[in-house]
Design brief:
The protein is an alpha/beta fold and 709 residues long. The protein folds into four domains: 12-150, Response regulator (Rossmann fold, 3-Layer(aba) Sandwich), CATH 3.40.50.2300; 154-261, PAS domain (Beta-Lactamase); 272-433, 2-Layer Sandwich (Alpha-Beta Plaits); 446-708, TIM Barrel (Alpha-Beta Barrel), CATH 3.20.20.450. A hairpin with a 4-residue loop joins strand 6 and strand 7. The structure holds ligand C2E. Keywords: Phosphoprotein.
Length: 709
């Protein structure tokens, strides 16, 4: 910082003298001694005054006795114009009266005639020096005023303390920032701002640096007068005197609370899930990385629990995203409650997937206990703002070091174990085993082949008759899909339908089945076979697809098949999902004239009152009850109950999986009018089914007594 030294421009001197020769001589004396001086000359007071007004010289050297206006009168006028002007009077008089007059006017120097040149030079020199000092002081004052205005108006809070840290000055911004006025602050130490959030170690370092003459900069987490916390970016440096001794410290504090909050938000967004506040996958991976290093070093076990919420997608789709979000938040909370607060990490991986890290466990059972605790916790109802819900979860567990030594493997294996748990039903956990890798690989290979199978026309339909046991007529042919893969051979639907469900491929596949079955039925009708229904299975996902009815209607139209010749087989579970929409869709399909039957009846949880609401025509007794119907009283009782129920609801009933004559006779005796099973025919490809249809003489009562075969 440069402080102005006062003499940047040379002074101007006005010399007033009526005697020309004297004027020229003295002018020469002056310019010889002070070559930088700008010299103005006048021959009387009036001229001098005019020049003064015009040029405002710093020094006026004047004779006393002059025509027109004398020196004293001119000096008086000049002093009125500028009291700071330095006036040197040259006079022949040295009586006290004149001198007092001169003092009254404010004349600065008095030089007697005859003029002593040295004396005159010395007097002018003195004037120049005092002009220099005055200018310097004026400019320094101006500069200090500017400086203090800058400090006062600074957008940065400034604190000046003495060497013991006692505050001597704070600027208005400091008051604005902290709420402390300068009266409340001066005489105190800056620790009035301490919040306890900045580690004491930081203050010690600070003092060490500044008392050693260095500059400290860093961040404080301070407290305002009203108790609010704020972040300040601060720099503190010593102020020294000319002898390099520290006399004060000056601190600058800038409020960076908003920036800190923005940083915090960014950090939060980068590492935490915004919906649940749980760590996200990035943070989880980092924490897992550290935990693995620890487990490795201390030879400890570590568990990864991977879980998702059963039926979450369905809840989200049917009850809306708000409920979905609330459920995720509540689940996150419940998961945290099941874990060790200070040790375990519960993270959200995305969607309804959560992942839990249990570092430092004693044995596998400890992970199993946590998994069971979570499953149990999820059996409690979730009370959300607008709805109460039950939801379950399936958990996969992998353990370090047995099931993987790195984050990726452990997560992948826990994920795989979760799928295995899901396959076994709801509310399950499963520990990873190495055989799962192989299964996963097979599943992946199958998934890839399945994606290409439709295009490559590897699917075909087999048909299996449903027979009316009283009339011996085939009332319906159930279409059952088969997949003939060049590498894997013939694959049965139970092996690939669930995969098609999971991957969504069931939608195009189901459409193909429906189109092919309807077209085939029409072909048989055109070939003049007695008309019968063709039954097509609909899986849950297929049934939930949007615009299902439009699709069915369109396919019927394309095949030119009357809707009464189409039967849709739905499992009980299909019906239990999204009840309201199911009833709506079924009504639309039924109103078209399509026959609806419930497959595998008795295995689900349908209640009688629910069934009554649905526009269905047939209940199908599941083959698991038919298989042992002659030997197992419970199975027989269920079959009887279903038949009785169907009768009371005026519904048709059919038993599937009838393989033996005994089964058929027993069911006939129970008044089950329709049957399906190997006893009558296995599912057959089109050509064979056509041959079968051609060979039956209608009505063919050999169905009634298969012993006649
Ligand atoms: N043990 C025994 N089994 C018999 C007997 N009679 C018929 N079956 C078998 O029982 C299954 C009857 O079909 P489902 O219960 O609808 O069960 C079907 C159905 O749920 C599903 N499925 C088949 N085709 C399709 C399709 O095109 N779409 C959908 N979504 N699912 C299909 O795959 C399941 C299995 O189909 P398949 O393997 O063809 O197995 C068929 C059939 O071959 C019998 O007397 N004894």
């Amino acid at each position: 910082m440069n402080i102005p030294d006062g003499l940047t421009t040379a002074p101007t001197l006005l010399y007033v003298e009526d005697d020309r020769a004297t004027r020229e001589l003295i002018s020469l004396v002056i310019t010889n001694k002070f070559p930088d001086v700008t010299l103005l000359q006048a021959s009387n007071g009036q001229e001098g005054l005019a020049l003064f007004k015009k040029h405002a010289p710093d020094i006026v050297l004047t004779d006393m006795q002059m025509p027109v206006m004398d020196g004293i009168t001119m000096a008086k006028e000049i002093k009125q114009l500028n009291k700071e002007a330095k006036i040197i009077v040259i006079s022949a008089h040295n009586d006290t009266g004149h001198i007092i007059d001169a003092i009254d006017i404010g004349i600065n120097h008095y030089v007697l005639k005859p003029i002593n040149h040295n004396k005159l030079r010395a007097v002018i020199g003195q004037c120049m020096t005092s002009i220099k000092w005055e200018r310097q002081i004026r400019e320094q004052e101006k500069f200090i005023r500017k400086l203090s205005r800058a400090v006062e108006q600074s957008p940065v809070a400034i604190i000046i303390t003495d060497t013991s840290g006692t505050i001597e000055y704070v600027n208005p911004r400091f008051t604005q920032l902290t709420g402390y006025t300068s009266a409340e602050t001066i005489g105190k130490k800056p620790h009035i701002l301490k919040s306890g959030e900045t580690p004491p170690e930081e203050y010690r370092k600070l003092w060490e640096i500044i008392s050693g003459g260095g500059e400290w900069w860093g961040e404080f987490h301070n407290r305002k007068k009203n108790g609010e916390l704020y972040w300040a970016s601060a720099s503190i440096s010593p102020i020294t005197n000319g002898n390099e001794q520290i006399t004060h410290f000056i601190a600058f504090q800038e409020d960076i609370t908003e920036r800190k909050q923005a940083e915090e938000t960014i950090k939060q967004m980068a590492y935490y899930d915004t919906l649940t506040g749980l760590p996200n996958r990035h943070l989880f991976n980092e924490l897992m990385h550290l935990a693995l290093a620890q487990a490795h070093r201390h030879n400890r076990l570590l568990a990864v629990l991977f879980l998702d919420l059963d039926r979450f997608k369905h809840i989200n789709d049917t009850l809306g995203h708000t409920v979905g979000d609330q459920l995720l938040q509540a689940s996150a909370h419940r998961l945290k409650e099941c874990c060790r607060r200070d040790r375990d990490t519960v993270a959200r991986r995305g969607g309804d997937e959560f992942i839990i890290l249990l570092p430092d466990i004693d044995d596998v059972q400890e992970a199993v206990r946590v998994a069971q605790k979570i499953i149990d916790a999820f059996t409690q109802v979730f009370v959300l703002p607008d709805i109460e819900l039950f939801i379950s979860t399936c958990i996969g567990i992998s353990i370090f070091p047995n099931d993987g030594r790195d984050t990726e493997t452990l997560i992948k294996n826990a994920d795989m174990a979760m799928y295995r748990a899901k396959e076994q039903g709801r509310s399950r956990y499963h520990l990873y085993t190495s055989s799962m890798d192989e299964q996963a690989f097979r599943r992946l290979t199958m998934e890839n082949s399945l994606r290409k199978a439709l295009q490559r026309e590897e699917f075909s339909l087999y048909y299996q008759p449903k027979v009316n046991i009283k009339t011996g007529q085939i009332v319906c042919l159930e279409a059952l899909v088969r997949w003939q893969n060049p590498e894997m051979g013939l694959i049965l639907p139970n092996q690939f339908i669930p995969l098609a469900e999971d991957t969504g491929l069931i939608i195009p596949l189901g459409e193909w089945v429906l189109r092919t079955a309807c077209a085939q039925n029409k072909t048989w009708q055109l070939l003049n076979y007695p008309p019968m229904r063709v039954a097509v299975n609909f899986s849950p996902r297929q049934f939930q697809q949007p615009r299902l009815t439009d699709m069915v209607e369109q396919i019927l139209g394309e095949a030119d098949l009357a809707p009464c010749w189409l039967e849709l087989e739905l499992t009980e579970n299909v019906m239990l999902q999204n009840v309201e929409k199911t009833v709506q869709t079924l009504n639309r399909l039924s109103n078209l004239g399509i026959h609806i039957s419930i497959d595998d009846f008795g295995t689900g949880y349908s209640s009688l009152s629910y069934i009554k609401k649905l526009p269905i025509q047939t209940l199908k007794i599941d083959r698991s009850f038919v298989h042992d119907i002659n030997t197992n009283a419970d199975d027989a009782a269920i079959a009887i109950a279903v038949i009785t129920m169907a009768q009371s609801l005026r519904l048709n009933v059919i038993a599937e999986g009838v393989e033996t004559l005994e089964q058929m006779k027993l069911l006939d005796g129970l008044n089950c009018p329709e049957m399906q099973g190997y006893l009558f025919s296995k599912p057959l490809p089109v050509a064979e089914m056509t041959t079968l249809l051609s060979n039956i003489k209608w009505p063919d009562m050999t169905w009634k007594d298969p012993t006649l075969h």
